Amino acid sequence: MDRRDALRRIAEIVGPEGIVPPTEAERYLVDERRLYRGSAALIVRPSTVDECSRILAICNRARLGVVPQGGNTGYCGGATPFDAERHVLVVMTRMNRIREIDPVGFTLTAEAGVVLADAQAEAAKHGLLFPLSMASEGSCRIGGNVATNAGGLAVLRYGTMRDLVLGLEVVLPSGDVLSELKGLRKDNTGYHLASVFVGSEGTLGLVTAAVLKLFPRPRSTETAWLAVSSPATAIALLGRARDESGDRVVSAEYVSRASLELVLRHIEGARDPLDRAHEHYLLLELASSDAPAALREKLERIVERAAEAGEIVDGVLAESGAQRDALWRLRETIPEAERREGGAVKHDVSVRISDVPRFLALAGAELDRIAPHRRSVYGHIGDGNLHYNLLPPQEDPFAEFRDRWGAKLSCAVHDAAARLGGSFSAEHGVGVLKIAELERYRSPQALAAMAALKRALDPNGIMNPGKVIPPAAFASRSA
Ligand code: 2HG
Ligand code: ZN
Fold first, then answer.
1. In this predicted structure, what is the pLDDT of residue 424?
2. What is the CA(304)–ligand 1 centre distance, in A?
3. For ligand 1, what atom is nearest to the CA of residue 427?
4. H or E segment at 456?
């Protein structure tokens, strides 16, 4: 089948409602961070699994690339098409049905285009919790969460998306539909195929639906904004809180003074909850099915003991839902504040939790040798995952700083993580942005295994071409 013929047939399959006209293409072709401006031969929004299956079968025959996209909130260009002749961008937003909720089995079956916040709200309607949570939850979609193995703010307690997926429905590159939506808690019948697709960033198949794990909804939540003497004490405090609360900690987010200052400067209504400035903060949240007073008492006791041990220098406990929201806003708007400051060279590293202080010392010393910069360090310290973001010295233009120093600085940050056995991408994935890092930091054995998997499931290389797998590892036959 020739290219034009294939594109015409795909357009017929989705019908006029499923075609994105060129006048509306911009929002799908430019990524969240505005790092890339892509191009595609066709942008379609299918509305059924059957349509997806027929589209992929045609692309496979005509050797057209298929680029899946959910909410387009990714950080690494993984959902951007890059070929105006041969890439079909498949936007999943019309497939947004919640197919089933099973309150006895604690599961929810959602299509790929369901907005994360809508899945959370549906669970809440039934008195249940879907715990995946992040600043982009109002626009990111379940399919993208699966494809990138999304992390976010409650991983410490509930795990990443991989831990929350019980099964998937996936359209394979051939157009065949792999349907594994049984929602079983136990099923050791050969390979766990869903796991292969979680985090594969659309390079192996098109995720169309997922069975997700739900949890009992906590009856009480307590939140504290604590100034700590160092990141090491933040970790000690987290250990204490987990232990003394009976493992009720849901989130432990580190915020450096520099990051908070960006928020105070750029985010309307943001104010420092403490009277004096401190270098390091921990946003700690506990949740449980205890009565609210009991959980509050637990948190107060933890804070008291931590203060006695010198771990906490100052702090506030949220007294209301509104205050809790205000504290979270200080953490969640850091990326927006960085953007308004002019931009940052961003990193998403992880190390073992106990190695976080060593990582900070190693990376800091190395960066000081390379170039003058400002650091905005924050993130999910409870997962050993920090966003170690670098800004130019005040008044210097960001673009110049990025072009001159970005690559060197990033290499130093990633090398520091690698020296401690850490990761260069803890939760944002690889996409197109971090392929060189994948080649540099993952072992030849791991790269070969990934390429073998790719060739086995997608022999014509049509799925999200040019993403994740380094071109050298998958040289031939790609779309
Ligand atoms: C967060 O934790 C996100 O806020 C974004 O993962 C991190 O913008 C960033 O560097
Ligand atoms: Zn993050």
1. 98
2. 31
3. 6
4. helix 444-457
Q: Which atom of ligand 1 is nearest to the CA of 428?
A: 6
Q: Tokens 């996409």 sit at which residue?
A: 431
Same domain for 141 and 44?
yes
Determine the structural domain holding residue 391 and report its residue range. 342-419
Decide which of 281, 304, 335 is a domain's last residue.
Answer: 335
Give the dihedral of Cα atoms 381, 360, 199, 104; nearest 10 deg.
-10
Q: What is the pLDDT of residues 110-147, one digit of tens each?
A: 999 999 999 999 999 999 999 999 999 999 999 999 99
Written as six digits, the tokens of 330 are 């200080």
Residues 253 and 369 grouped into a single domain: no
Cα–ligand 1 centroid distance for 387 (angstroms): 6
How many whole angstroms from 180 Cα to the centroid of ligand 1? 32
Domain CATH for 356: 3.30.70.2740
Q: Which residues line ligand 1 (CB under 6 A)?
A: 135, 335, 346, 379, 387, 389
Residue type, 451: A
Co-location of 303 and 350 in the same domain? no
The DSSP call for residue 182 is -
How many Cβ atoms sit within 10 Å of the Cβ of residue 160? Answer: 21
The ligand that comes nearest to the alpha carbon of residue 339 is 1
On whether both 327 and 393 belong to a single domain, the answer is no
151 with 198, same domain: the answer is: yes
What mean pLDDT value characterizes the chain? 97
pLDDT tens, residue by residue, 189-207: 999 999 999 999 999 999 9
For the chain, the helix, strand and coil percentages under 3-state DSSP, each to the nearest 5:
40, 25, 35
Measured from the Cα of 346, ligand 1's closest atom is 10
